[in-house]
Structures are given as structure tokens and as C-alpha cells.
Design brief:
Layout: E1 2-4, H1 6-12, H2 15-19, H3 24-32, E2 36-39, E3 44-50, E4 55-64, E5 67-77, H4 82-86
Parallel strand pairs: 1-5
Antiparallel strand pairs: 2-3, 3-4, 4-5
Length: 87
Amino acid sequence: MIKYTRHAEAKLKEIEPFLLKITKGKILKVVSHPIFVYHKVGNQFLAIGKLDRGRSLCVVYNEENNDRKIVTFFPAKKGRYESKILS
């Protein structure tokens, strides 16, 4: 099950996600089928997936039992985080 923090819900209503066409569907796709997953601390993860040709969509989420809670998300220049994870 996917849940969203108040921060993530509020961020979806901002202008940048609207202009970049970031939707709950895209966030779900990144969390479900990421290109990379980076385990941060405890039960927190950073999933990275494709947003558009030049950008990736990064999604920070917590995982407890089989539930995932989206903490935040942000666009990043393609390769910015992937290169750090691979090195």
C-alpha cells in the first residue's frame, strides 16, 4: 500500500510538479519499478526513475511491513544521483 505524508501531498499541488507533469502515477511507477534504489538510514529509501529525457525523478520513502510512505520527491538532472550510487 502506498501512502503520502502531508508534505508530499502538499508538494504535489505546487507549480513545479504540475509543470513537470509529476503525478502520483509517476511516483508509484518509480517506487514500484525504480532504475536504482539507495538504502539511506533505517527503513528509508531513495528510489530513482525516469522523469523525462534529461531528468530523473527521485522519491524518498519509508517502508514498514509491506506499506510504503512517500516522504518527498524531486526532479534531478539525469545522472546526478545515479553516478553517486554506482561509484
